[in-house]
Amino acid sequence: MLDLYTWSTPNGRKASIMLEETGLPYRVTAVDISKGEQHDPEFRRISPNGKIPALVDHDAEGADGQPRRIFESGNILIYLAEKTGSLLPESGEARTEVLGWLFFQVGHLGPMVGQWHWFKDAAPVESDIAIKRYREESLRLLEVMNGRLGVTPYLGGSDYSIADVASYAWARTAVDELASEDAESVAGLKPLLDWLKRVGDRPAVQRGMEIPTDEQKQDAAQRAPLKGPAGGGSVLP
After folding, report:
1. Same-domain status, 134 and 221
2. Within 71-161, where are the H helices?
3. Domain range spanning residue 226?
4. pTM score over 0.90
């Protein structure tokens, strides 16, 4: 059995989509990041950087003799792919290509779209230059994806893979945001838009995008706020 700790963000949905794709049994704990639950010392023992998603595999043993923890979303995707032998080629150029596009998402698409969202919707002081910079970089990254998807149906090549799982929710978020501001900015990205539909039509993707459910989030809402580093606690290993 696997325990998934997550929230309704693009990073969180990478893990839930992958779990749905693999068919592995798992339980969900919603970690309400708006309440700072990611800083809870118990959660930090699973995810040292206090980020969702995180996973605990009760069928595998960690170095401390406890169920194995798996943190960082890209690491979770690789772990689940190798555990099940799915959505990641075993070797060769095919594996290298999939991992290249996985790290494209981890190192570029996610951070840039995330910064654009934060400066646009959450920053306490508005910064036009930051919003412009991260919006333009987010669009550029979507154009990189569009170029790739113009010559191959999936990011890793001919087959659906963890590269697509990683990028779907982030690309969907960015495209929807750009389209709401200026539909013309994404209208020309036809291969990317076709890919979003192709991936979005997968039943496992649709199920994963609904995790955590409203009921799971309600459970989190009823918990008292948790203390951690942000509340005067200490960072745990």
Report:
1. no
2. 73-84, 92-104, 110-117, 128-149
3. 2-86+209-231
4. yes
